[in-house]
Amino acid sequence: MNQWKEAIINGDTSLGIELGSTRIKAVLIDRHFQTIASGSYEWENQLKGGYWTYDQADMITGLQSAYREMKREVNKRYGVTLRTIGSIGFSAMMHGYMAFDSKGELLVPFRTWRNATTGAAARKLTELFGFNIPERWSIAHLYQAILNEEEHVPRIDYVTTLAGYVHWLLTGNKAIGVGDASGIFPIDEATHNYHPSMIQQFDALIAEKGYPWKLEDILPSVYLSGQQAGVLTESGVGILDPDRDLAPGIPLCPPEGDAGTGMVATNSVRKRTGNISVGTSVFAMIVLEKELSKVYPEIDMVTTPSGSPVAMVHANNCSSDLNAWMDLFREFSEAMGFGADSGKLFSVLLNKALEADPDGGGLLSYGYLSGENITGLEQGRPLFVRSPESKFNLANFMRTHLFTAFGALKIGMDILTENEQVAIDSILAHGGLFKTPVVGQKMLAAALNVPVSVMSTAGEGGAWGMALLAAYMTNQDQGESLEDFLEQKVFQAVEGEKLSPDRADVQGFEAFIERYRAGLAIERAAVEHLLENGRA
After folding, report:
1. Range(s) of the domain holding residue 463
2. b/e per residue, 3-33, with b = 16+ CB within 10 A?
3. Do 423 and 376 reside in the same domain of the chain?
4. Does residue 345 have a pLDDT over 70?
5. Do strands 273-278 and 426-430 pair parallel, antiparallel, or not at all (unpaired)?
């Protein structure tokens, strides 16, 4: 406690704040990468005007609330007011579209990664570049706005991601980490910057529009991990810490996407390693030894925070529908007069899945709250289906909802392992689902037929990973790579639990995924015949 108190006073700390899909979290760590204090703020996306979005004011409120809670914990536990921090980093959901005018005003509400509204733009750009441009990517959102002839486009002065926006607010610097940048526009592996010929192709594509900007002029500058990307300004202090106890001038590392912080938090930045981040969406990041043989619309090509190529399989839907069912069970328990806390509720219900039939008893579910790019659906309808012969019980119900959370991911991962023979030694998983021991890990191992490890640090998540990137900026040795920094300094003594796939579970999941593929016609019919407001 005394060592931590001294570290806080002297600023021998690093702070990571991540704006995730359901929670904004702040994590303060010491020079040994241990968590000193944390804070969080719950938020949810909303469907407004046909777009999934988060309110701009809520971004600031959430940022301040998470920081304030962390700051109060510091004061309560150590008896000191937080006045300085050694380094800070911000991360957030990758992709999406935040466009600003020359006065810094947001031109249209934030369009998140969850929107499946850019299909025409993504297809056109993929064809133009010979490089897969997913619907989530910022450039797809920008080009779709151009195709739609949206009136704000000529007024654009700056386009960035959510992490880039927060970093800009607090530093005044229009910066982005290379990992987050790789979800904005394709990155040239040789230069670790936006691909120059593709920039030229895009400018030529829209030249006839006569816009007063060129693409490179409106995008943030790209930084590698370990570089300094600005300092906390006086106005930035007022935004982050309205009490203004914090001193300005603190160095900030490049802002990163949640995919990058997931790789860092699981020590998955070396080749042949991979990690899976589970939350509202689910994505797998596999660091490649060589380029893929062709373009796959289901596979994003992005980078690690240090610029290495990564194959990313990103499914828009994962835990949201499972969480909705958990809320229903919570309502039931409260109505029966024995309210259960969330931890116990998740533990009891998830563990029921271990008692289920290997394939989930013939049940079928799609947790599609939004469209799903991997299965080609522009909209989603959460759906649960069973036949008269299905074995409908609680255990099978829970296993089915865990299996379906990984259904779209499985389809994308099969492309890498079967079509491209990508070698994966093991997968490291993180996210709230793995706070309940064994269950989620076992289901994921069955889905991918690969050993799955969960580290003791898994619950810390992306905010902790962002704090590590901030610490790397200030604590790296001369010429020390991010890979070596993580392996030799951060994770050398970190324990992890590896679970190999169970043969019966693997066979059960294969039976389930066959049912899942065949049943996609049902999901498409639901989208076609059930409108978003619930009316037929």
Report:
1. 265-316+409-499
2. ebeebbeebbbbbbbbbbbebbbbbbbbbeb
3. no
4. yes
5. parallel
